[in-house]
């Protein structure tokens, strides 16, 4: 089989992205960020889908041009089927279906969360199977047992809110600008992680709960600002550091437990929150402590991007895993 050349499209949330991959090597990876959401402090689904419609043709054109690949050289078109925002997914799905149909080439549907994990196979070093991947984002918190490129099992997950939401909502309560999670991470680097204590739900097994910490932070801030209206302004770095420390400690406690129970020392992280510098450093520290081989993706492959969709599609193409023209987006698609 000749090395497949695949165009991949990602449109699950507020990033319009396209990438071209050939033989497992990413040739281009273009991302258009949507600034329209900043004034609302979060992603507005209708505005996101409209922005995707505006961005998708220029982004795909730039990806094809950057890869120096013509349309007739493509062997398949891949797209994110889910999970994600329905309107946003529809734009990528519809474009990919039309593009593939027009060229008479196969269509490949990709699971967004699997793609985050497979981003580890874009560059070296690559994890060996089986490995554990802590997959963390604004919508998901999962510990995934990865047995092969396309064989994955969720062994633990949040029972309510994702850790990324806890970061973002805390940042919003503190008055930090959108996107809140990265800003909180930046402020945390200047604070004392032991300054304040916050509780997190203790779930059985490898599961998580993050809804409680948001409530805890909310009442903590209300009580403190009653006594001192300037409390947040005076202590914002310490608050950020303490919340981040609590969330990271909770994430890694379950990961350590799973590693020890299963005897697996190949450990990875993926998803938007894997760009968090505190989490990356803490994982490295635990790696040294427990003798893990730790895999952390490059920053450009942590947040939503099409290169991860492309590498997932590469392995699906080799397996002959193609979609039909009747495929539709699935906002709640699971691994």
List the helices and strands and how they pair.
Elements: E1 5-10, E2 15-22, E3 25-33, H1 45-67, E4 76-82, H2 86-103, E5 107-111, H3 112-118, E6 131-136, E7 141-148, E8 151-157, H4 163-173, H5 180-188, H6 211-227, H7 231-262, E9 266-270, H8 277-290, E10 293-295, H9 306-319
Parallel strand pairs: 1-4, 4-5, 6-9, 9-10
Antiparallel strand pairs: 1-2, 2-3, 6-7, 7-8
Helix pairs in contact: 1-2, 3-9, 4-5, 4-6, 4-7, 5-7, 7-8
Order of helices and strands: EEEHEHEHEEEHHHHEHEH
Largest sheet: 5 strands, mixed
CATH structural fold name of the largest domain = Nucleotidyltransferase, domain 5
Low-confidence stretches: none
Return the domain count. Answer: 2
Count the DSSP helices: 9
Structure write-up:
The protein is an alpha/beta fold and 335 residues long. The protein is 43% helix and 19% strand. The strands form two sheets. The chain has a five-stranded mixed beta sheet, with helices on both faces. Strands 8-7-6-9-10 form a five-stranded mixed beta sheet, sandwiched between helices. The longest helix has 32 residues, at 231-262. The two termini are 28 Å apart.
Features:
335 residues, alpha/beta, Nucleotidyltransferase, domain 5, 2 domains, five-stranded mixed β-sheet, 9 helices, 43% helix
